[in-house]
User: What shape does this take?
Amino acid sequence: MLRRLVLALSGLSMLAAGLNSGASAQGLFGSPPPKASSGDNAPADGLAPSPSAKPAPQTAPAEPAPAAPVLPGSPTAVVKPFYERLGLELDPAQRKNFIDPAKTVLDKSDALRASGQGECLDPNMALDNAEYDKLAIDKSLRTVEAVNGDQAKVVVAFVVEGYQHRLEWKLKKVGGDWKIADLLSVTGEWALSQYQCE
Assistant: This one.
């Protein structure tokens, strides 16, 4: 029993370390890095398998487990509304949920729009600029939250029209509340903080 608990905790800490270092794991985070072998059947203890050992049969992936409930006040609770209402990140009433550098970019975008000079940001950044398909997003949306002191990351993954999208929301705790500091697209390779809305 103790060994199972240790193995579970070590697996969880490896996942958290992967989130912090930018490493990717299969499933929510995509396929393994190119140097990794997806056929590596070496046991975790480092011992080579016996010559008579046969590899485990390949089976179809299981259906994903149901999503855990989102805790009120958690980083995920701050991010979730952006997937329930399209374009919420551009709503000036939502600035209370943002801090710099994201807040500065959003404020500059509002000023540019108000001046009549056009738009700086896409209206569906939370969707990685994918076409809005609520049914597909609701069906495939998965989140993973990692908290480290007063900083957190929420990785969001979903599929639209067969294309996988992954975004990373960076949050910071300010005055006891989680605030969004940046939004990065892992698949599109952009960050909200890099936009120059002037």
User: Anything to note?
Assistant: The radius of gyration is 20 Å. The chain is about 25% helix and 20% strand. The CA atoms of residues 9 and 122 lie 40 Å apart. Residues 1-27, 29-62 have pLDDT under 50 and may be disordered.
